[in-house]
Design goal:
This protein has 619 residues and is α/β, with parallel strands linked by helices. The protein contains 20 helices and 26 strands. The longest helix is centred in the middle third of the chain and has 34 residues.
Length: 619
């Protein structure tokens, strides 16, 4: 037995392939779309802004307000003193003071002294040059279970001058590494310079704020215990953050010059994390995040701190991939299952609903847990499954429709079949009046033949007979209405218009007569003494349409001309002819037919009848 591939099987195979692709597909195949999806997800869900964060921006306004429009370390020292007076929890510098390190310089002494008045957190940058590790080194306990990501190891660091490090309370990494599209979506949680680990600037700022003496780092993938809270890190040891919208950035940010001129609320910095940086490219640099096209790097460090403080750190775990693949397989099978009973548009609608549910589920999971499930890749794969399943079902439907048209065309003319299959409604075809030329056939002596020939042999002969006769009817533009016993009932000019339909019916009768005479000479027909075919033709107005109840319908024609054609076929018996043509058909044909004289036809009275001869000249 041959197993035919059906749409359901195609849908199953597509679902399996999609699930495997979710697991095995290289990360860079759909990484761009996936990350943009995560960006949109993190922006749609509102995360509360921690009141513990203040950002001081050494902005263009500050530059314009100082002498020579050039911000100096002396201005920074004055700014730090102002902030330190409010007793902040920590002042985190997204500024690296790595040049002009003379410890005897008065400006350096002033800035170092200001840093000593409050807990100062100095940032350092990534460097290709190996050198001395930044100081002071923040405390960190490491569990034996830790698998250190290769991503953490740095060749070197560019740190602030020793004069400032000596006054600082801690050090953190302030460099940011963007993705392939240059967007910064995550921050490296720790960096290892030499053999010493350093936290990210925002992470260390939160540790100082919580006054956690010694964080604990361990696990595979890594996790970080910060006080009572445990934060899971990504496989590469990074921490995602929720990028703040511009309005949120504006509400926590103050211009440095406003701080110097006391144009900020009193006690603004008390027990706060204060980030100091610049939105000017020559100082702090501008980066792209999910929330803004260009944002100061200081704001990104503040965003990381805010995510940790609000305990809402977006997490994309590699373990999610297996669950996403399982979901893809299950949802794909649901789509495939639809192909068993439903048409393509239903499958397509259901598939779209499944994809929308997938995206909605991804949204709900993120809002409840901060987990980033890959609704983009899963939806993309389900869309592929949907297209494959719907197209396969469409192709199957077209194949079935083609077979149906071919099969039903053996019983009805193609025009009627097309009318049925192309009409979406289920109403019966309403009767219409039109001129119809009817052609009826009958096999001479069929009752005797049926009595002496075995049924199987008789059916074999009739199959050949009807196949060839019906083909001739179709070739001449006629419609085989039905086959009754040994008789063929055919109409011309129904259900579609047929030019010169009377003559085509007569030509068809002549062709059938010649065919069946040739057929009778074939050995298998001759052996059974297969009878001649008698034919009757008449034309006139008839009503065409469906007849019957819903359980059994028949498309046929009704009218005197139809009934008369049946009588004329029978009249061949006493006329001694093969083809008998009625008076109306004779007048319509405008051909030279041989007159048979007037004869009484039962139920119709006396009328003149005609017959065509092969030798009669056509006019």
């Amino acid at each position: 037995m041959t197993l035919r591939i059906r749409p359901f099987h195609v849908g199953i195979l597509a679902s399996i392939a999609a699930a495997l692709l979710v697991i095995l597909m290289p990360d860079d195949w759909l990484e761009g779309g996936r990350e943009l999806y995560f960006d949109r997800l993190t922006q749609i869900v509102s995360v509360p802004a921690s009141p513990a964060i203040v950002v001081i921006d050494i902005d263009r306004k500050s530059y314009a307000a100082v002498p020579d429009q050039k911000w100096q370390r002396a201005n920074t020292a004055e700014l730090v003193e102002k902030i330190a007076a409010d007793n902040p929890s920590v002042i985190a510098f997204d500024l690296v003071f790595s040049t002009d390190c003379n410890p005897e310089d008065a400006t350096n002494i002033k800035l170092a002294a200001a840093m000593g008045k409050a807990p100062a957190l100095l940032g350092f940058l990534l460097s290709d040059v190996e050198g001395q590790s930044p100081r002071p080194l923040p405390p960190l306990a490491i569990a034996k279970s830790l698998t250190v990501p290769d991503f953490w190891f740095l060749p070197g660091a560019e740190a602030s001058c020793p004069v400032f490090q000596q006054k600082a309370a801690s050090t953190g990494a302030s460099f940011l590494i963007g993705d392939e599209d240059s967007r910064v979506r995550r921050v490296q949680a720790f960096s290892i310079v030499g053999s010493e680990p350093y936290p990210a600037l925002g992470l260390e700022a939160v540790r100082r704020y919580y006054d956690v003496k010694t964080p604990l780092l361990g696990g595979t993938p890594p996790w970080l215990k910060l006080g009572k809270e445990i934060f899971s890190l990504a496989e590469d040891g990074s921490m995602r953050f929720v990028a703040s919208r511009q309005g949120e950035i504006d509400s926590r940010t103050y211009s440095a010059i406003d701080v110097l001129t006391s144009e900020v609320p009193s006690r603004l910095f008390e027990e706060k994390i204060v980030f100091i940086g610049s939105s000017l490219p020559n100082l702090g640099g501008l980066r792209e995040s999910a929330g803004a096209q260009l944002v100061a790097s200081t704001q990104i460090h503040a965003d990381l701190a805010n995510s940790i403080l609000t305990n809402f750190v977006p997490l994309r775990d590699e373990g999610f991939i297996t669950l996403e693949a399982g979901y893809t397989l299950l949802a794909g099978l649901i789509i495939a299952l639809m192909t068993v009973r439903f048409r393509p548009w239903v499958i397509f609608t259901t598939g779209i609903c499944v994809i929308l549910v997938t995206i909605a589920a991804s949204y709900v999971i993120y809002t409840r847990t901060s987990w980033l499930t890959d609704g983009f890749t899963v939806s993309f794969m389900l869309a592929v499954v949907l297209i494959v399943a719907a197209f396969s079902q469409f192709a199957e439907t077209r194949r079935i429709e083609k077979v149906a048209r071919q099969r039903f065309s053996q019983y009805l003319p193609s025009a009627v079949v097309n009318r049925y299959l192309d009409t979406l409604g289920t109403h019966q075809v309403v009767g219409e009046e039109r001129q119809v030329t009817a052609l009826f056939t009958d096999i001479e002596g069929f009752s005797t033949l049926a009595g002496r020939v075995k049924p199987q042999a008789l059916v074999a002969l009739l199959n050949v007979y009807f196949a060839e006769v019906n083909k001739l009817v179709a070739d001449h533009g006629g419609m085989v209405d039905k086959v009754v016993g040994d008789a063929v009932h055919a109409f011309f000019n129904a259900p579609e218009d047929l030019k010169d339909h009377v003559n085509k019916a007569i030509d068809c009768a002549l062709a059938i007569s010649r065919l069946t005479e040739e057929m009778r000479a074939r050995p298998n027909f001759q052996a059974q003494d297969f009878g001649r075919t008698r034919l009757g033709i008449e034309t006139g107005i008839a009503v065409l349409g469906e007849v019957g109840m819903a359980g059994k319908l028949d498309y046929t024609a009704h009218g005197n001309s139809i009934n008369l054609a049946a009588r004329l076929q029978d009249a061949n018996k006493f006329l001694g002819t093969t083809i008998c043509v009625g008076p109306a058909a004779n007048m319509e044909s405008r051909r030279k037919l041989r007159a048979l004289g007037e004869h009484e036809i039962r139920g119709f009275g006396s009328m003149e009848l005609f017959t065509p001869d092969d030798y009669v000249q056509k006019t």
